[in-house]
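hiii, so i know i said id send this last week but things got crazy w the move. better late than never?? heres the sequnce for the chain we talked about at the cafe, plus the structure i predicted for it. fair warning i was half asleep when i ran it
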Amino acid sequence: MNKQELENRLIDFAATIIIVASKFEKNYAGNHLAGQIIRSGTSPALNYGEAQSAESTKDFIHKMGICLKELRESFVCLKIIEKSNLTSDLTNLTIAKTEANELISIFVSSIKTAKTNLK
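okay and structure toks below
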């Protein structure tokens, strides 16, 4: 997968998160988790753009690590949303969970490779 393909997947993931969050129940928990998942779910795409302009390999690893942390936060948040039945849009919720898990794997691998190349 090249940089553009990964960026496109991150943008698609962010869009799916926004769609999922827009269909939450309108209550305190729904509003709270909608804000939370939108922040963590859109952050990886934005931070990946920053990683592409990293000033060094260490800076790249750091920025990719931020993306990974946000993806993991999003994945846990999606599981909370699922368990608490905050949305009836189970199709997009499942798509988002699967994609978050795959993106986590990609970022773990990429960071590992970058750390190996740093040595």
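btw The chain has a mean pLDDT of 95. thought thatd interest u
miss u guys!!
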